[in-house]
Design a protein that fits this description.
Protein name: SEC14-like protein 1
Shape: globular
GO molecular function, one term: RIG-I binding
Subunit structure: Interacts with RIGI (via tandem CARD domain); the interaction is direct. Interacts (via GOLD domain) with SLC18A3; the interaction is direct. Interacts with SLC5A7 (via GOLD domain); the interaction is direct.
Radius of gyration: 31 Å
Region (Disordered): 192-212
Structural class: alpha+beta
Strand content: 15-25%
Keywords: Cytoplasm, Golgi apparatus, Immunity, Innate immunity, Phosphoprotein, Signal transduction inhibitor
Number of strands: 23
């Protein structure tokens, strides 16, 4: 069975008032020469309210789909009929359009929703949005063909939609119509309505939810207004992208690519209450997986967890590279290439990779490379502003002059491969072009070692020049302006990149020193990770002395689904026994798993549940807090979430038996952080929490509720 195809458009803004756009839109009916496949339309139903504010019209549209004749013959139809229902509300200045197919409705289900609304920041502008879904149940064995035809027709029509409105606007203008008055209530009820109207614009807080609840839209603004009416509610709703912004900052995307970006971004906003990556970064992950939204989502989530775990967001501001790196790492940023991409110069041949690995260890090197990549992301953003067009990747120039057998030292190569792997996974589609210059004879050997680790898409961007070929035709000058070619390549530009050289042996450190250093670097994170197994939850003990403290938590579910609980007990649990892990024999440091609640304890007698259980799905980020009522011991518990067995038989289901044979299927991983705050500091800390989570309005809504219910846990669905 085919998957349901979904489409969601960006917001298209017309810099014209709603009424004029409506006049243009109406001209598409009954037929429209600009849409050749739109052959005819008949009005089936019509309703007008007495004051003419509401006008609903239902039409049956006849389409001549551009499909192979054979297919039409097999299907036995020449035309496809759609039903389109337009609901115009002149008072609210909205038009909602619902369309679905009547032909083949038992085989193919097509639903489309479009809306024209007033721009939130400018009442003389109009926003247009559309979304659709296509579900092909069966089509005489031609499901995939039909899907391709439908998608092709649909996307070409999306492109046309804007041209059509603009065409009719121009036609109206030629006829001298540049203004259409707004709807006003009939005179009879003038009195009461004028009073209500003077009152309304004063407080948009009433205005917005009012129309939103009518439409049954789950509008985020409602949350905003209820938590603090003083906030301005308008703004291009910041959880939406508009078409002009996409073109200017992200590039020319096809309608389906735009749709993937918008949907993935929407999903992130719903599930990740932490920092959401910038749009151009989300787009990189989509590009890396050819816009397969599920695959892109998977690698992006892994990367977000990784960023959080290693505090990558703060690398540029908080990490100072050791002096050895500043002196001996022969790489640095150097202006930009002809396409406006930031240019990174690396004199790999002059660099003592072996010495650097021995003096620093892999971790510090990796961290340094990460900081270079973070800087690269920043520079792309700046260049996008400076050059007035989207720039999302950088160019890397690697000079191999001086490359020798030292560079093939195994630990060095291993470190390089690991760094490449981490960068590939977390900075996809950031390398626009790689120029490898002055490649020596050993290079092919190194290249065969490294190239299998490099993504195919990335490999296409490599240009390799032996000896002085880079100075000839098709060389460096094709990619980099003459004025900025570095001096060491025979150019006239002074290049600030360190020259490298051998790292003195006196700076080498022993394996043990490095080992300790490495561990410190990797666990320099406030998060702890835990494994959760079927029958073996992970539990954390928090002792509370002051009755009204606040326990806060923040965790990511990296793998599997779990249930999160919080319990209170008057007496201290026994310290966990070491052998509780025997059954699973987990020795890895990442597999922290502790049980505190004694098997003989009874819920309700020895300990009580103070929060209702929260089911958290894989990939979710959860933050919450609990205001404690009593002193004593609180236990936070992450438990494996298992499907209930057949209640009727009470016998284990076959699936359960199979699952229990395959241990990996019920191992969950959680990364968590907890903190106890005195209740008087809590208000303050919640606001700081809010700011660090990119101002999600839900957070402020949740805080207000926590004082009544003694708890608030936020999870995102």
């Amino acid at each position: 069975a085919a998957m349901v195809q979904k489409y969601q458009s960006p917001v298209r803004v017309y810099k014209h008032p709603f009424e004029l756009i409506m006049a243009a839109y109406e001209r598409r009916f009954p037929t429209c020469p600009l849409i050749p496949m739109f052959v005819a339309s008949d009005t089936v139903n019509e309703y007008k309210s007495e004051d003419e504010a509401i006008h609903v019209i239902e039409r049956r549209c006849k389409l001549d789909i551009d499909a192979p004749r054979l297919l039409k013959k097999i299907a036995g139809v020449d035309y496809v009929y759609f039903v389109q229902k337009n609901s115009l509300n002149r008072r609210e200045r909205t038009l909602h359009i619902e369309a679905y197919n009547e032909t083949f409705s038992n085989r193919v289900i097509i639903n489309e929703h479009c809306s024209y609304t007033v721009h939130p920041d400018n009442e003389d502008w109009t926003c247009f949005e559309q979304s659709a879904s296509l579900d092909i149940k069966s089509f005489f064995g031609f499901e995939s063909t039909v899907e391709k035809i439908a998608m092709k027709q649909y996307t070409s029509n999306i492109k046309k939609g804007k041209e059509i409105i603009e065409y009719y606007l121009k036609q109206l203008e030629e006829e001298g119509i540049t203004f259409v008055p707004r709807w006003t209530p009939p005179v009879a009820c003038k009195l009461e309505s004028s009073t209500s109207h003077t009152r309304r614009p004063v407080s948009p807080a009433i205005n917005i939810p009012d129309s939103a609840t009518k439409e049954g839209l789950n509008n985020k603004e409602i949350l905003n207004t209820s938590s603090s009416p003083s906030e301005p509610t308008a703004g291009t709703p910041d959880d939406k992208l508009d078409a002009d912004y996409i073109k200017r900052y992200l590039g020319d995307l096809t309608p389906m690519q735009e749709s993937c970006l918008i949907r993935l971004r929407q999903w992130l906003q719903e599930t990740h209450k932490g920092k959401i990556p910038k749009d151009e970064h989300i787009l990189r992950f989509l590009r890396a997986r050819d816009f397969n939204i599920d695959k892109a989502r998977e690698i992006l989530c892994q990367s977000l967890t990784w960023r959080k775990q290693h505090q990558v967001d703060y690398i540029l501001d908080t990490w100072n590279p050791p002096q050895v790196l500043q002196d001996y790492y022969a790489g640095g940023w150097h202006h930009h290439d002809k396409d406006g991409r930031p240019l990174y110069v690396l004199r790999l041949g002059q660099m003592d990779t072996k010495g650097l690995v021995r003096a620093l260890g892999e971790e510090a090197l990796l961290r340094y490379v990460l900081s270079i990549n973070e800087e690269g992301l920043r520079r792309c953003e700046d260049n996008t502003k400076v050059f007035g067009r989207p720039i999302s990747s950088w160019t890397c120039l690697v000079d191999l002059e001086g490359l020798n057998m030292r560079h093939l030292w195994r630990p060095g190569v291993k470190a390089l491969l690991r760094i490449i792997e981490v960068v590939e996974a977390n900075y996809p589609e950031t390398l626009g072009r790689l120029l490898i210059l002055r490649a020596p004879r050993v290079f092919p050997v190194l290249w065969t070692l490294v190239s299998p680790f490099i993504d195919d898409n990335t490999r296409k961007k490599f240009l390799i020049y032996a000896g002085n070929d880079y100075q000839g035709p098709g060389g460096l000058l094709d990619y980099i302006d003459k004025e900025i070619i570095p001096d060491f390549l025979g150019g006239e530009c002074m290049c600030e990149v360190p020259e490298g050289g051998l790292v003195p042996k006196s700076l080498y450190r022993t394996a043990e020193e490095l080992e300790n250093e490495d561990i410190k670097l990797w666990t320099e994170t406030i998060y702890q990770s835990a494994s959760v197994f079927k029958g073996a939850p992970h539990e954390v003990l928090i002792q509370i002395v002051d009755a009204s403290s606040v326990i806060t938590w923040d965790f990511d579910v990296c793998k599997g689904d779990i249930v999160f609980n919080i319990f209170h007990s008057k007496r201290a649990p026994q310290p966990p026994k070491k052998d509780s892990l025997g059954a699973h024999s987990i020795t890895s440091p990442g597999g922290n798993n502790v049980q505190l609640i004694d098997k003989v304890w009874q819920l309700g007698r020895d300990y009580s549940m103070v929060e209702s259980p929260l089911i958290c799905k894989e990939g979710e980020s959860v933050q919450g807090s609990h205001v404690t009522r009593w002193p004593g011991f609180y236990i936070l518990q992450w438990k494996f979430h298992s499907m209930p067995a057949c209640a009727a038989t009470n016998l284990p289901r076959v699936d359960d038996v199979l699952a229990s044979l395959q241990v990996s299927s019920h191992k969950c991983k959680v990364m968590y952080y907890t903190e106890v705050i005195g209740s008087e500091d809590f208000r303050g800390s919640m606001t700081s929490l809010e700011s660090s989570h990119s101002g999600f309005s839900q957070l402020s809504a949740a805080t207000t509720s926590s004082s009544q219910s003694h708890s608030s846990s936020m999870i995102s669905r």
